[in-house]
Amino acid sequence: MRTRLAGICSRGRGLRRSDDMIAVGFFTNKGGVGKTTLLCNLAGYLARHSGKKVAVVDADPQANATQYMFEEDILEEIYDLETEETIYDFARPLSQGKGYAADLNLKRSESFAVDVVLGDPKLALLEDFLAADWGTSGVRSLRSTFVFRVLLSHLKKYDFVFFDMGPSLGSINRSVLIASDYFVIPISIDIFSVRAIGNISEWLSKWRKMLEQKMAFVDEFDDLEVTDIELRLKLLGYVNQQYTAKRDAKGRRRAVKAYEKIMKDIPAAIDKGVISKTQPEPEDLDYQLGEIPNLHSLIPMSQSSRKPIFSLKSADGIVGAHFAKVSDAEEIFSQIAERFLQNVKAFDDHVAG
Ligand SMILES: Nc1ncnc2c1ncn2[C@@H]1O[C@H](COP(=O)(O)OP(=O)(O)O)[C@@H](O)[C@H]1O
Ligand SMILES: [Mg+2]
Fold first, then answer.
1. Ligand 2 center–CA 303 separation, angstroms
2. Residues 6+ apart with CB under 8 A from 130
3. Mean of all residue pLDDT scores within the chain
């Protein structure tokens, strides 16, 4: 069985085929940068306008993605009456030593047109369990570490599965990233966010090494119950967020000067902090998926109506100049979706070629 170890943690070309489901973690080690807003709106855009089947897995114990996509009364039923199974219900049997759960439940968000594995504050209980198992070796450690790969095995009918994640390098996020094909970094335009990029590749290399060591200790992979244990994670791109934009004389949307200064350091930080150390890449890939400026009152309107920003209508409070802002937002998400799909295709072609 040890012969199977070769290539399991390969840095190189993954075994993914282009018709397979693709799992993407939205991750940065900093809170409040607009991860959840980006994830839900991009998921909604791909589902509503690009004809993709998308599932969202709310793996942040804060459950903000779930709160964004479902009405208050539904949330009360989920959490108070426990009428729906959540991500925690999927993970719980594992933490009780009962192996993987047999089923995974999803709930449809009609307005975003995506299916959601509901978030749950109780998921935080998994953090310590996964951390303890990561610290050991052998089958049990790998079984816990790959819990989200097993979750993904229930979601094969989707084109994309997006993981919403909390802002930490904790054990839940590590397991999510280990399960994912790609990650997207939402970057808020401030020096802290740019600095946080710097240590991502260090963490990834550490995890890769640890995984290789763990696998070296496992003799009987048949006991593991997970067959897909290749680490494939690559950066798909980043999105600049949370800056102020103005139209220039030619009508183009541009960041105001103070933000532009920080923004121009980002490509080098991404290159140094992630790409050059951790991944082979297709030529001419543009990692910048897009830019989302401060969208002001569209954000609370979108939150209150539980609708994507680009779907807001007069019934949601849109009046006068807001209409133009909603079309701007639609253009913004359309561009991000286009680049996102282009980059996925570029990596697929790279693997095939
Ligand atoms: N493009 C935007 N323009 C204005 N406010 C935003 C934008 N994106 C997110 N926000 C606000 O910033 C806060 C953090 O956003 P959120 O998506 O929850 O970030 P994270 O998931 O990174 O914590 C929220 O209050 C949200 O309303
Ligand atoms: Mg969030």
1. 13
2. 144, 145, 147, 171, 172, 174, 175
3. 89
